[in-house]
Fold this sequence. Notes:
Elements: H1 17-23, E1 33-40, E2 47-48, E3 56-58, H2 60-72, E4 77-83, H3 100-112, E5 117-122, H4 144-161, E6 165-168, H5 175-185, E7 192-199, H6 206-211, H7 231-243, E8 247-251, H8 257-266, E9 271-275, H9 277-288, H10 294-307, E10 312-315, H11 318-326
Parallel strand pairs: 1-3, 1-4, 1-10, 4-5, 5-6, 6-7, 7-8, 8-9, 9-10
Antiparallel strand pairs: 2-3
The structure holds ligand PBG.
Amino acid sequence: MSIPLPHHRPRRLRTTPAMRRLVRETRLSAADLVLPVFVREGIEEPVPVTSMPGVVQHTRDSLLRAATDAVSAGVGGIMVFGVPRHRDATGSGGTDPAGILNVALTDLRAELGDSTVLMADLCLDEFTDHGHCGVLDEHGAVDNDATLGRYADMAVAQARAGAHVVGPSGMMDGQVRVVREALDAAGHQDVAVLAYTAKYASAYYGPFREAVGSTLRGDRATYQQDPGNRTESLRELRLDLEEGADMVMVKPALPYLDVLSDVAAVSDVPVAAYQVSGEYAQIEAAARLGWLDRDRTVLEALTAVHRAGAQVVLTYYAQVAARLLAGRDPS
Ligand code: PBG
C-alpha cells in the first residue's frame, strides 16, 4: 500500500466552499445563456407544452413579458420560434413580413432594442404543411438548392423585422453562404449568422415537435447528421467557416459533448451548443418523480456543456439558471 506523498493531495483544493470557488475552472453565467421561446399565431392565452413542463407557446403579448423578464434576469439572448396558424408547401409564413415569427421579432426589437441579442430560427419546418425543413421536389425529397432561395428570403425578412442574429437550422448544404450573401445584398451586413453546424438527426427533438405543432411524418435523416458520426462535424465546421458563419453551434448538447469539444478545439469563432427539448424533458420528468434534484442537475448539465467548449448555451432553463446562479452559494 502506498501512502500519498504530501504534494499528491488534490483534496486540499476541495476543503472549503471558498477554496472550491477560487479554483473552479468553469464558471457559468447568465450572460452565456440564450432562452429559446415559442410564439403562436391566433391564440388568446399562452398554451402549455405538455412534454416540456414550464414551457409555453406564447401569445404576442405574453412573449413580450417573458422576454423582458428573461432580459431582466440577465439572460444573454433570446431565440424565437414561430408557430403559424396556416402552413403550406413552401412555408410562405416564414418569409411573409406579417408571418407570426416576423411580427414577433418586430415586437421584440421595438420593446427590447439592443438590450439583448435577438435571434431568429431560420428554418421552414414550422411553416411547411409537410413539416420538412425545406421544400420538396416532385419525388417528395427535400430539394437542397430550391430551399436555399427560401432561406435567403427568410433571412432578409428576419433582418428587416429586427433580428440581430439569424440561425439557419435546416442543415441544407450551402445555407450559410446563401444567407450571408442575401443579408449583405439587402444592406444587413451587421446581422450575424449563427450556423447550426453540427446538427444531428436526434430523438431528443421529440418534445419540440409538440411545441411547434409539427406535422412531420418520417424523419430528417437525409439532411441532419447521423448520430454515429464525429469527424463529419469537422467537415461541416470547415464549410460553415468558409461560408461566413459568425458563430457555430452543436446540437443536441449533452449527448454530443465529444463533438462539441472537437469543434471548440479548432473553431476560431464563438461556439454555441443547444440543450434541446428532450434534454429538458428528461430532467423535468426525473425531477417530477423525485428521482433527480432539478436545480443541481440543471446547473451541472449546463456547466458540463460550457466546460466541453460551448461559450454560449441555448437552453429552455436560461431564466431558471440565471436565477439559480444569482442566488448560488459558493459550494
Ligand atoms: C428546426 C429546429 C428543430 C429544433 C430547433 N430547430 C427541430 C428539428 O430539427 O427537428 C429542435 C430544438 C429542440 O428540440 O429543442 N427548426
